[in-house]
């Protein structure tokens, strides 16, 4: 290759590397799907790319500009990386817990002494703990078992829906669609518990103080939030047009996407109760991670609403 072309190629790669928005996100969940949709249909900034990952990556990889995760992972990372900022909530998900009536479960209190599936150190584990505490149950009152999620029936060995159907567990609580698939596997024996005022997942976007103070990166992030807002408008008001796209993106059946859609509130903002919500959850995160709970002032710094202010300014 002629040296000139080699230089040109390298220069081009550098430019793309600097200007493109790199977003780390878990590519397997329904929650992430507005992001590829926004990039494909509405985003007007410099190129943007999604890579597999999450908020843990933004703490260590300087090439990552944005990350998406539940608030639980955000709090875990913020505890040791105080430069992380939560800037936008994509979706609030009212997690559900499905139980087997054949195990004698009619109320939440009946879960005392039972085996409950969930994913340790995740938003799902916090949800189970919080929901059962409303029935007066402590975590020593039941046994927590780990398992795998399932996106599509038939759910294999070791997945929560299969464990529930084969009585290895009496109930499980996690994000969708595993709960829906578990309920369908049990049929008439399924009973579902949900209380969004007790817990909802706050699946959000994160950046860092450094990235947000870089004018070019910030401009692209603002453009991305605008594109996400347009996307969430479609997801909320014209969901029929996206069920098939979402199903294909995460390997689900279209009918199941439609069934679990109402569990997802496409938010596109930062909720007014976010600070007290995070303060309460951080007490649990601190216990799990053997670190001190963060002070109110420190948690207030975690929330940066100035990017949304820029979106508002147009
Ligand atoms: C949800 O939880 C709140 C707070 O514990 C409680 O007041 C409310 O009755 C619950 N709602 C349902 C439907 O159980
Ligand atoms: C933090 O704020 C909450 C809610 O306003 C309050 O109950 C709590 O006492 C505060 N904690 C500290 C350490 O100031
Ligand atoms: C996205 O933009 C911000 C700023 O203008 C608004 O506050 C949000 O309500 C809006 N979200 C959606 C889903 O449109």
UniProtKB/TrEMBL annotation:
<dbReference type="InterPro" id="IPR015168">
    <property type="entry name" value="SsuA/THI5"/>
</dbReference>
<keyword id="KW-0732">Signal</keyword>
<protein>
    <submittedName>
        <fullName>Periplasmic binding protein-like II</fullName>
    </submittedName>
</protein>
<feature type="signal peptide">
    <location>
        <begin position="1"/>
        <end position="20"/>
    </location>
</feature>
<feature type="domain" description="SsuA/THI5-like">
    <location>
        <begin position="62"/>
        <end position="240"/>
    </location>
</feature>
<dbReference type="Pfam" id="PF09084">
    <property type="entry name" value="NMT1"/>
</dbReference>
